[in-house]
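Predict the holo structure. Ligand: NDP.
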Amino acid sequence: MGDHDVDLFVIGAGSGGVRAARVAAGYGARVMIAEEYRVGGTCVIRGCVPKKLLVYASRFSDEFEDAAGYGWSVGKVTFDWATLIANKDREIARLEAAYTTTLERHNVEIVKSRATIEDVHTVRLATGARIRAETILVATGARPHHGTPIAGEKYVISSNEAFHLKKMPRRILIQGGGYIAVEFASIFNGLGSEVTLVYRGEKILRGFDEDVREHLMRELGLRGIKVLTHKIVKCIEKVDRGLDVALSDNAQIIVDLTMFATGRRPNVEGLGLERAGVKISERNGIVVDAYSKTSIPNIYAVGDVTDRVNLTPVAIREGHAFADTVFGGKPTRVDHSNVPTAVFSEPEVGVVGLSEAQAVEKLDTVDIYKNSFRPMKATLSGRDTRVFMKLVVDGNTNKVVGCHIVGPDAAELVQVVAIAITMGATKADFDATMAVHPTAAEELVTMREKAISYGRAAAE
Ligand code: NDP
């Protein structure tokens, strides 16, 4: 190790960085990790975890409503935002402490400081201290990006601030049609806010299966979320009654809060990457190979900063694979295909594999099985809602190459379906699987009628 202070210096103690540091230390490496904010990173501190807690909170309102059809009189219910936020903060502090303890137990030295790369083997801390490192791992994540600034930008919050609002907004406008916009629209809707979702395209959740996009838009509308498409926010002005938001079609909406969820940008600025010769892509992500190695042989990068598949479990896998490769003597690539994903909207979306459009583009023959049905629970509750399920099948091999679910517990369901798809299960395997009755998921093993077949005539 020569003149190096550590074998590995990790910049950023988020999901990817923490896993890499812990596993590398487990292999006997001397590891130091720098974090300028809080240990745990976006997912634990201001992403997946606090978001899911707010999602749980937001779903009680439907349960209270649905209970009536089952004979319950719930009476007057009230909700206290301050209690929810305080409880959520306590849980996040607990998790942060748990992450810190895990690192310490593995003898990873934590420095609470911004760190920048001075040269390929030197990291500089905010104190001016220089650490010589054999290997450097950049795991600095990403941050909200609001696009071109508009007049009244100062009244716009991102999801970061949404977790710490003093008061719940009575009326909120959210711009964006991706994961975060849709999830927060459902959260605030469930908690009782009046929600307007402004999206620049035709259908929310671009990149998802078309049926899923349409189904979710309808469901959001049924729950009272106003989805405005083909529009963007032009400017925002503070007025007596709140914030006056002007849209591109000149419509004006008065709300109490505006939130933008218009994508996230990798955190690459000011890290000294250019100075070290680390290549950055046009989309601002650090360019890496299949082993997460950058253009500089001893500098690696994992997670959102590389702008590959920006999801926590992927960052964790990348961090682990990096440590196995560099410190465990086991070169490991991460398979970025068939990554299951979920949108924690109400109702939930769970997806794994190819959409119908992707399958048609990629495969010679494609069979589509799909159904939309009223969930059993809605029969007595009287709720106007439907569940949607779709299987995308490779017509040549009979393999299920995509599964798309919109409905209760879609995230939980798709996690399990992802195992079957990863193992290469065929539609015949799904059909041979006995149903669990009565469930919504039994639909996945009982869909027999092809809704659409592509390319079959040509193939025959
Ligand atoms: P997304 O990239 O998912 O969505 C951004 C949305 O903002 C899109 O609808 C996009 O429109 C729109 N948009 C982009 N630029 C502008 C603009 N200038 N004006 C108006 N609208 C604009 O980003 P998110 O911020 O929602 O989430 C970031 C990432 O975080 C996700 O991609 C995901 O990887 C991760 N994430 C995952 C979650 C999960 O797993 N459940 C939850 C939350 C985040 P268009 O479609 O036209 O491009």
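The chain has 15 helices and 23 strands. The pocket of NDP is lined by residues 147, 175-181, 183, 199-201, 206, 232, 261-264, 310-311, 341-344 (CB under 6 Å).
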